[in-house]
Design goal:
5-stranded mixed β-sheet; 3 helices; binds molybdenum atom; mainly beta; binds ligand MTE; 5-stranded antiparallel β-sheet
Length: 158
């Protein structure tokens, strides 16, 4: 299968890419009206800080590790900080074309274990190798298929 031609938002196989696609941890946020914003880890830190304890990385490549405490910005907080239009879902895609779709219902129903854009792990700055900026979906049970490392673009859909 040619990964470049593969739709990044359809189910993946567990073939984790171990190597960051670039050194730059900033990503694009695409709003419903088509506007593109650049979000850096520094920008994320201007939003409310959320900690998520007791998380595991059930990695197909490195085995299971954890528990970890991830720290970052709630995906919902980022959307609410910039998006003024009505939206139903969000696409999160890495620079190496690995992606995940998150629905508004999921974001609105997870209040004590929120979906996070993590930039710290166990209270240390997450390295680029570790996935900076890394999506954490606490409810997922599918061996880290939703833990998008190296987020490259977040697109909000109407
Ligand atoms: N950008 C990106 N994120 C990804 C992957 C990938 O290939 N690319 N693989 C996923 C899968 S299937 C797993 S098991 C974990 C592995 O995480 P680790 O490399 O930190 O162990 O990353 C997830 N996130
Ligand atoms: Mo995986």
């Amino acid at each position: 299968m040619n990964q470049v031609d593969h739709d990044p938002l359809t189910p993946h196989r567990h073939e984790p890419n171990p190597a960051p696609p670039s050194t730059d941890a900033s990503f694009e946020l695409v709003l419903v009206n088509g506007r593109h914003l650049t979000i850096t880890p520094h920008t994320l830190k201007e939003n409310p800080i959320t900690h998520l304890a007791g998380c595991y990385i059930v990695s197909t490549g490195h085995g299971t590790s954890g528990p970890f405490t991830f720290t970052g910005t709630r995906l919902l907080d980022l959307i609410q900080a910039y998006e003024t239009s009505t939206w139903t879902q969000v696409e999160i895609v890495s620079a190496d074309n690995f992606g995940n779709r998150v629905l508004a219902e999921e974001l609105n129903s997870q209040t004590d274990k929120p979906i996070l854009l993590a930039y710290r792990i166990n209270d240390r700055i997450m390295t680029r190798q570790q996935g900076l900026v890394r999506l954490i979906v606490p409810s997922e049970k599918d061996d880290a298929l939703r833990q998008v490392k190296w987020i490259g673009r977040i697109r909000i859909r109407p």
